[in-house]
Write a structure and sequence with these properties.
Layout: H1 20-46, E1 84-86, E2 91-93, E3 100-105, E4 107-108, E5 120-121, E6 128-135, E7 169-171, E8 178-180, E9 186-193, E10 200-210, E11 214-225
Parallel strand pairs: 2-11
Antiparallel strand pairs: 1-3, 3-9, 4-5, 6-8, 6-10, 7-9, 10-11
């Protein structure tokens, strides 16, 4: 009788746990795992170092040097001599229209300022100046009361007594009757002679006053005429 041997079906378990197929699969898996571990190790050793980011350099702002503010020196007031009047006019027209210009220079002197000796021009600011038209006094000399010079504010009022012609000069708005001399002690007036001024002989009087501490004045003659038209 012929015997037939049947191949086991797929659903039949084999009792051979150490089959060559399982051994091969396990070996391959272990080999692959060991290769992966070695690759990580080599990569960690041979990996190029990362580029170091440069540390930003912060420049310190320069500290501004603090310079000491110089203390302003007090103005040294000096005795005043008779101011110099330039561009005087021998005659003037009392028509309220003819323009005139007078300039003056404040002068400092050593000694007695009332003698009007030759002095040096003032080279600093602070001197107050005034111009006015005056009648010629009987003695021919203009005198100003001392109390009129005690305060500079009083110069806005008539300082020549009855000799001063109030409103005799109409001043340009840019050059007031009472104003400060510049840093060189110079001053300029622009004006016209009022029609109310009568024909006759007068003085142009210029006063310089240094904050009431020192003062002096001078004058020049002028013949005022009326418009005959």
């Amino acid at each position: 009788m012929q015997q037939t041997i049947s191949r086991p079906g797929p659903n039949i378990n084999s009792n051979n746990n150490g089959s060559p197929q399982k051994i091969i699969i396990t070996a391959i898996a272990l080999f692959a795992l060991s290769g992966l571990i070695v690759g990580f190790a080599v990569g960690a050793v041979t990996r190029p170092p990362q580029a170091t980011q440069p540390t930003p350099i912060v420049k310190a702002s320069p500290i501004a040097s603090q310079k000491a503010t110089p203390t302003p020196q007090p103005v040294q007031k000096l005795p005043l001599g008779c101011p110099i009047i330039s561009d005087p006019y021998d005659t003037g027209m009392a028509d309220g229209a003819t323009p005139y210009t007078i300039q003056a220079q404040a002068i400092t002197v050593q000694g007695q300022p009332d003698t009007c000796p030759k002095g040096q021009p003032v080279q600093q600011a602070g001197v107050t100046c005034k111009l006015w038209l005056s009648h010629v006094p009987g003695n021919g000399k203009v005198s100003i009361p001392a109390n009129a010079l005690a305060k500079v504010d009083s110069l806005q009022q008539p300082v020549g007594g009855n000799d001063e012609v109030v409103g005799g000069l109409n001043f340009d708005p840019t050059t007031q009757q009472v104003q400060k001399c510049d840093s060189k002690g110079q001053v300029t007036w622009k004006f016209t002679i009022a029609p109310s001024v009568q024909h006759g002989s007068y003085y142009f009087v210029v006063l310089t006053d240094w904050d009431g501490a020192y003062s002096n004045w001078s004058w020049v003659p002028v013949s005022v005429k009326k418009n005959q038209g």
